[in-house]
Amino acid sequence: MLADLRLLPRPFYLLMAGSFINRFGHFVIPFLAIYLRQLGFPPAVTGYTLGAYGAGGFCASILGGYLTDRIGRKPTLLISCFGAAVAMILLAFANSIPSFIAGAFLTGLMTNLYYPASSSLTADLIGKELRVRAFAVQRLVINLATACGLMTAGLVAASSFVWLFIADAATTVILGLIVLFGLKKGIGRKASTNAGWGAALPVIAKDWPFLRSVGASFLVAAVFWQTGSTLGLQVTGESGLDAKAYGFLLGLNGMMIVFFELPLTNWTRRHDPQRLMALGYSLLGGGLALLAFGSGLTMLVLAIVVLTIGEMISSPVASTYVANLAPDEMRGRYMGVNGFSWNIAAGVGPMAGLWLFGSSPELLWAFCGITGLAAAWLILIRAKAAV
């Protein structure tokens, strides 16, 4: 494993260092539902605001994939970093429903422009034989930063939510400076003059393994996004705990990934990717389904542990699978469509989850388990078709 890590190039580690700084401050959205409730807004407003964030991400998937292939990886990263900082400051000083919705949309747009460019650059820099390891390193860095950031955020939120927004903006600016001065101009695959969606869509429309992967990703992402919306309401409402406990649970998810995901790739990279993804998606949904049977701290911790095991099994494999399917000249757009499924789910998942949560929290968590199994079924159908 250490020998593989030494083979990864310096620009990749520079990108990872910047990602750590960025993700350390990327803790606003998970706490946004709690913040809006403290301000006295009804749950519907929280749903609209989180939905606007998802809508921004939806637009980012389309625009980000195009920009990544058209103007290059580095320029797209810079637009994302500095644009997200401005959006976060606007969100920090929002004081009305329209301003929260507009700020959330702009934040979702600018923040999610980053991912098609970052994932495409990682795939550009790393050969196929090391991509599972590289994507696991990427997730390790992101989750280590997220865990540290969320645990810190739980303490900061107790005194001032506004400082969370300001800190997020500051860390995003730092990442932009690292990209600007640390990555050489033109790094990654050269920009293409044939980067429009008109050329890519006919190819994507015929790529059934990819389309089924996108469908499964949407389902499991809708489940996963409950951790950033309804789970916070469960912890601070039905479970009778506080924002510190919520931060701890999200931090536990990140710390498990930090310590266990990279060693786990020694096992996952030797097995069939479709079946690993199906197993992971089933566990991810099943973890939250446990909350239908109890909402105490012990059950919350168990739910996060099971969910995280599923995430660790499926996520690096899924990212690598998509990168390997994508033609080199269309990698940004493939990554954009893959991100599109997560960003659509970021809007649909919380809104549907909040509606179900308002009717019955137990119904929501049971439905999460069913949805995880449906995602696994899609992957297994694809695996059988490939035999």
UniProtKB/TrEMBL annotation:
CDD domains, per the entry: MFS_MdtH_MDR_like
One cellular component term from this protein's GO annotations in UniProt: plasma membrane
Subcellular location as annotated: Cell membrane
Chief subcellular location: membrane
SUPFAM superfamilies in the record: MFS general substrate transporter
Transmembrane regions listed in the UniProt entry: 12-36, 48-68, 75-93, 99-115, 136-156, 162-183, 209-225, 245-264, 276-294, 300-323, 335-357, 363-381
Keywords: Cell membrane, Membrane, Transmembrane, Transmembrane helix, Transport
Domain Major facilitator superfamily (MFS) profile: 1-386
InterPro entries: MFS, MFS_dom, MFS_trans_sf, MFS_Transporters
Pfam family, one: MFS_1
GO molecular function, one term: transmembrane transporter activity
UniProt topology in membrane: Multi-pass membrane protein
Protein name as catalogued: Major facilitator superfamily (MFS) profile domain-containing protein
Native organism: Rubritalea profundi
